Target: Methyltransferase FkbM domain-containing protein
Amino acid sequence: MCSLLLATLYEILYYNQGLHNIRLKETSVKITPKELHIKRNHIRLRDTSVKTTSTDLHVERDHTRLKDTPVKTTSPDLPRKRGPPGHTIPVDLSFIDNKWRLSSICKPYTIFINRRDFPLYKYTTNAGSVKIFTHSLSDVISSVIRRAGAFELNTINRVIYQLQKDPSMNLIDIGTNIGQHSIAAALIGRNSIAVDAVKSNIEHVCASAHYLNIGSRITLIHNILSDSSGTRELRYSASNTDFGLNHVDSDGIWDKMRRKFSGGHFKTKTVQENAATLDNLLLIPQMQQFKKVFIKIDVEGHEHRVLLGAKEFFKRLDVQGIIMEWAWHVKRQSSEIIKTLMAEWKFKPFRMFRTTQFDLSAIQSNLWPQDVLWLPIKNNTKV
Model:
């Protein structure tokens, strides 16, 4: 008992000491969001703490180049934090005040063993069967994992299938939750950048990655991804124990959520969280491993804002495809924004099956499925 306690204290002290030796070079990248204006709806976008000259979205794109300002490090990667012998704790970063900083959320998994809000359950996909840390069973996603082995298994297996098409392709997992997609990618030997605005989600992904000894393959980002940096308003569940529907309160999504779910499911007040953009991600050293990427994005109706923050991202990286949650964009202005941007970047929408897909281009987007696969036109394959 005493030996276990001393070992745990050693890990914590060692971990905290290591943080003092890691510094990131300050950068000051200002990204002015270009917003798309769709005349037929005239929906005003919610003000945020980032000042813009217009609250409408404009189809015209800004081609201003992002300043090449690499973060100063002594190696292509930030030093990884060490846990027990042979195990690596993932690096976790946050973009705050135009700087990338170590967020210091990730801790050794041994801290969470036997905690009721960190149960270990079997997680099974085409990448294999392992145990991961989930939330308590009052969280819908976690309860499904316990019962069925995975949440939205078909989507996870399709991500695995896409990654296996090219050994040099890695994953960017936006809205990672407890990290199902990133963990699956790591299990087949791929690297991932996992992004989430909720601290508890980051803690769970870190603990699972450390426990499974795949921490060197996953980098955690604790931010909202949006069209510009600064802060955004995030709404949590009323119980603080269900993490699947936390959402950025903008562009009318709160009204849509209230119509679908009981108003008592969510907290009335929102919490300010730090935001970053996909263009900001280009500045972290880990991106050197992400020249060719597949993207999974599930951020409860904020996907259009994430894409609006990718002016340079789609120019610099070879994006091989995107799986995007679509359900929250039905009958919203955001659907037109997404379709305009994806057409500009030469992607087509598909209904996805296990290894094939059906072209949705000729189908009205309000009839599209819950998740849509976007593929570059040059790489489209017939069913």
In short: The domain at 91-376 is CATH 3.40.50.150 (Rossmann fold). The chain has one domain: 91-376. Residues 2-19 form the longest helix (18 residues).
